[in-house]
Specification:
single chain; 694 residues; alpha/beta; seven-stranded mixed β-sheet; 26 helices; 45% helix; extended; golgi apparatus; Nucleotide-diphossugar_trans; transferase
Amino acid sequence: AIFGQGSLLLLHSPSIPPLRGVSLRPPGALAMAFPRRDLSSCSCLMLVCALQVMLLLPLIRSEVSDNKSLVMPSTQRIRDANRYRNLQGCEDCQSGKDRGITISYTDASGNIKMYTIQSRDLSASWIWKDSANANHEMQDIDLRGQSSLLEAVTTTKDHDKYTMEDLSPLKHIRLQLRERRKMARAAALVEQSRDAEYQMEKEAIARSKDLQNRFRGKYSVWRREYENQKPDSTLKLMKDQIIMAKAYASIAHSKNDNIWYNSLMKHIKASQSSIGEADSDVELRPGALERARAMGIILLMAKENLYDCDVVARKLRAMLQLQEDNIIAVKKRSTFLIQLAAKTIPKSLHCLSLLLTTDHFVHGYNRKEILDTKKLEDNSLYHYAIFSDNVLATSIVVNSTATHVKEPENHVFHIVTDKLNFAAMKMWFFVNSPPGVTTHVQNIDDFKWLNSSYCSVLRQLESERIKEYYFKSNHPSSLSDGHENLKYRNPKYLSMLNHLRFYMPEVYPYLDKILFLDDDVVVQKDLTPLWSIDMNGMVNGAVETCKESFHRYDTYLNFSNPMISRNFDPRACGWAFGMNIFDLKAWKNQNITGIYHHWQDKNEDRTLWKLGSLPPGLITFYNLTYPLHRSWHVLGLGYDSGVETKEIEAAAVIHYNGNYKPWLDLAIVRFRKYWSKFVQLDNPYLRNCRAVFD
């Protein structure tokens, strides 16, 4: 704004574009009339007039009529929005006078410059307005400067719009379509935002349901971040103090410093007395914290008087070596105890076997057996083979299988046990056999063909070298193997019940197919579809167990032996016994039992594999095993606590292979429920023996 004599001058510069849709009125033109003359007689007069026009033109440009409004036209709505005021009747505007105008500006270096120009030198596009309305214009400028971005955009759009009377019908239709598209886009964005928000909410709810927080109740934002998270921090501190005190006491003893030695030993005994058998801070005896403080003070004083870096380091290394030896001894002891517990019969199961055997002979059940022998050889039925000396475990396998079949009368269970448990097994299934199914119990000692002249394992067990290796703990070979050999001393590896699976055609000569089940499995689905699987001429149908580099042939066999490396692939995928469908026709054609005998004889000195039934099984059925889907058989519930619950519940058969059998106290607690739900807790035999499996 440039102030002249009582007037306000609004500049319109080419560098500042005017408002859109606004045009400036040209100044009032000077009406000049010339009388008509003849062209030949008015030549001189026209020249004079031209000179006069040139002289009067600047004056005409500088004059602005006071009664003319030079403001741009606009609609009433735009004038109201911009607070436009028509400056009609500007009394103070003196259009006929020339005014001096002072302009100030800042140059590139920041210095203020001023210069004066005359109004007559201004462009004709510059417009004068009445100074009485200057305050109103300044107020409009301030209000526009303080408006929000949305108001500015709205004002700009309002300037671009025409009144309804100015729009043609075609433009009016386009405007309506544009408005509809804008509203549709806005509605789509809002709906999209709602859908995204709803989806995020659903995902958050799903994540919260899957969250398994073991430390419930600690959600307060006001909780102490540094609360005692470790319940044995004080206990560990006191144990560390005892270690350092022993080191300093040893140094004091070597220096014959009895005062320090006696003082340290006194504090060591006091700390050990406070610890006792504690496993956490809450189990420490009263006064333990004060004794820990006293021990800290005496250790600080001992460090000042007895500390020698080399001596202390030497003492600590000796103590570390001693502790490592103790850890190795404890591990060996732990392994031995686990193996001992795994092969020990629980008291309740031993009681069960005794009661059943007693009732079998006392009540004469040995003479009351009624059995339909035709079913035992009927190939139209579904036949199962179970070899076990555990009465309760066998009953769980039979009960869980019979629970999920549709026609129990078409299912036959062939059970083979040893002479010691034969009466108990017969008595149990005579009284507690599932309704509809057929159970047939046999004694392995009744198989006269199973002798040392025919069976390689029985022949090897008669040798003195094998007896010394497996039954004399002080044998040099046993001592050299250490705790790794302990698991192979389990009687199941020497029992013929464990190797009877390689003689299926001899045990069941009239059957074409049979499903083998271990006594540590639980059936969760109907297994009858296994009989309809086309195994493409294979003998054994089993689930493969290889995962990446685990459970492949090189895990079980000694590939440093040329006989193994020449005949087998070390990366071949292993499989598991426990649930196997055997085609006995193909078995006989392939002479599987003969292959088993061949490799069992080669391993007489145990150089091909360790004791057990799985390694010879991998060799015997090499390239003769049909892989079943993993959902048929899930393993590891007897040693791997990380088996997923979802995988267990989807499996047809779950297998408790390993030392942690479900009927032992060693069992993994969260897996036991799948087995214990088939235990008949209301059975009088189990109640009398106080058999509890919770």
